[in-house]
Amino acid sequence: MTNPAANGAPTDLPLIIQGGMGVGVSNWVLAKAVSLRGQLGVVSGTCIDSILVRRLQDGDIGGHVRRAMAQFPIPHVADAVLQKFFVAGGRPPRTPYKALPMYRQSVSLARQQVTMLAAFVEVWLAREGHSRPVGMNLLTKVQMPNLPTLYGAMLAGVGYVLMGAGIPREIPGVLDNLANHEVVAIKFDVEGLPAGETEYLRFDPREHWEPSEPLYRPRFLAIISANSLAMTLARKATGRVDGFVVEGPTAGGHNAPPRGELRLNDRGEPIYGERDVVDLDKMKELGLPFWIAGGAGSPERLEAACAAGASGIQVGTLFAYCEESGMTAAIKEMVRQGVMSGQVHVMTDPRASPTGYPFKVVEIDGFNSRAEGRKRCCDLGYLRTAYREENGRLGYRCPAEPVDTYVKRGGDVADTDGRKCLCNGLFANIGLGQVREDDVDERPLLTSGDELACLGAFFRARPHYTASDVVDHLLSRRVALQGRHATAVNGHGPDGPGGASNGNGAATAGSARPGAAQVHSRVPA
């Protein structure tokens, strides 16, 4: 079904991975632009089914969604979704979006098919018109939609799957089996289960159609924050792990919690220490490629990462504010202006996310960027947690839902303190926020890496920049050093002996300059 050659040779590794920023910030437009530059463009698969149906209800501007839907190999699925959700010309003003049923352990085939279709559409559009690989990023914590999402992405020929926010030990085996259209199952996290009892999430491709040919099995990159986790996945995963993204606590979105007792600084942020540092020498011993993420978005950091044995870097924040990203133009401009005027800060909030993981929140002076004062409701439900009810059935709750509802469902009231509805807030970031009866749109809830506040000079030099500009910027030092080396080899180097390069595009001691990143064998994660 899918030409494996279209995803490159196993040794054809990108220097730059564009981060998988959800919800919908890492859209197909951005991923395609990055892949066209020879790097790895990544689409976010988080909440992708709700994104699809909202795009359709907004009229599918440009017809891109429908063009991709026409290529879905199970035609009746696309026809049914169009009939139910497409609105020619878009919804009337102040009309709420029609919602999908929230995910549960068991959902209808039709509900799974919307998810498969949505993942297919996003990957197909990102791959359209070129032969470079495209990746998809998913959160391990968002368990319930992940199996049909993976299958839909594989139907479109996704080249890489990247997963963090948990321990994705079972996913490599899932990819192996889905490539052959086999039944797959993963353990389902359920609170209150008796000792020794396990619940599962299952998905059977053959309940949806009768496939004939195997699918391409994408390469799997686990996003990790500790050597121990990398070692566990490399040795005990259910299938092949192809590499790692080593993510530090300065990265945007969800961060791994600090190891040991939680301590907070004077701003109420988690304090990370020596135990949270990843030893890159030990990563090299695993013999698998890895990329550095978290504060890695600079030419110097790329060179330092490669010198330390990494295959490259993963970058999110710089791409988040480029022209192609899914964030609304108004929010991009507001953030860029705020950064240049020193009015933007990034807060690592230990309470915001219903997952319990620390979550980076962008704070802008004079703008409510943390969705404060929002009326509590849970109508998307991607971060709901399953629990065992007294009658033996499974229930679902979220600490960001109304407090009384959460408590009635057996939740601890203390868990609700400070929680934000990430699902709805992140949809508002991309212009797909729900319309509420009180005539107030969902408020954006922005996330970026810590490096955002330091990008004033970059934004001033590039008021409106593209993904290609980001790639050029990140590769600029590498290109310059290679150019200087080529000149020196030809006998025309201005720097003399010991000058520009070691012949591999990496700076030598003789070419170090003030402000250049130093190479370390350990990075905070």
Question: What does it look like?
Answer:
The chain has helices spanning 28-36, 48-57, 64-69, 75-85, 109-127, 146-155, 171-179, 227-236, 280-285, 299-307, 317-320, 329-340, 403-408, 422-429, 456-461, 467-489; strands at residues 16-18, 41-44, 134-139, 160-164, 184-188, 190-191, 199-203, 219-224, 243-247, 277-279, 290-293, 312-315, 344-349, 359-364, 385-388, 394-397, 522-524. Helix 1 (28-36) packs parallel to helix 5, helix 2 (48-57) crosses helix 5 and helix 5 crosses helix 6. The chain has 16 helices and 17 strands. The chain has an eight-stranded parallel β-sheet. It has a three-stranded mixed β-sheet with strand order 6-15-16, with no helix packed on it. A two-stranded antiparallel sheet has the order 5-7. Helices cover 30% and strands 14% of the residues. With 525 residues, the protein is an alpha/beta fold. The longest helix is centred in the last third of the chain and has 23 residues, at 467-489. The chain is globular and about 65 Å long.
The total of beta strands comes to 17
Q: How does the overall form come out from the CA principal axes?
A: globular
Q: What is the beta-strand fraction? A: 5-15%
Runs with pLDDT <50, length 5+? 492-525
- Give the radius of gyration: 23 Å
Helix-strand category:
alpha/beta
State the major sheet: 8 strands, parallel
Number of helices: 16
* Largest sheet: spatial strand order: 1-12-11-9-8-4-3-2
Oligomeric status? single chain
**Straight-line distance between termini:** 39 Å
The proportion of residues forming helix, as a percent range, comes to 25-40%
Mean pLDDT, to the nearest integer, reads: 88
